[in-house]
Amino acid sequence: MKKVIALSILSLSLLTVSCNENAAKKIKTENLELAKERDKEIKIGGPKLKFDKTEHDFGVINEGDIVETVFSFTNSGKSELIITSAKGSCGCTVPEWPKEPIMPGEEGQIKVKFNSDRKPNLQQKQITLVTNTDQGKEILKIKAQVTPKSKIQ
């Protein structure tokens, strides 16, 4: 019983001593300034991607064809749009995107190349854009009916 009381007193004294530190002193002013800037941007309104289309159908193509399409967009938001990355669902789908910020009201393009070599029959691929929009990512889709080499005359 004496051990329990002694441990309780020790625990209580440690708890009292450890709480004396002022948490406000631990805040870094540069982090506070960054948070104020971020909050100001949030109040203004974030960037918004408005695409002319989010899907493209190449129709019927021959195996081995390399086809290309363009997805045009506008930043319809109130702050600059940044596209961090764009990745195809496989190596046969290669996107190109603007690396510089897109200001509100400005337009941009995502160019997508699809290589149908060794990709016979129906192909459906997607391109994932990582952005600073509310969603954080956007999905674009392409598809094609690829005629196999054995059926091309």
UniProtKB/TrEMBL annotation:
Q: For this UniProt record, give its keywords in alphabetical order, as a comma-separated list.
A: Signal
Extent of the signal sequence: 1-23
Top-level taxon in the UniProt lineage:
Bacteria
Keyword Signal carried by entry: yes
Name assigned to this protein: DUF1573 domain-containing protein
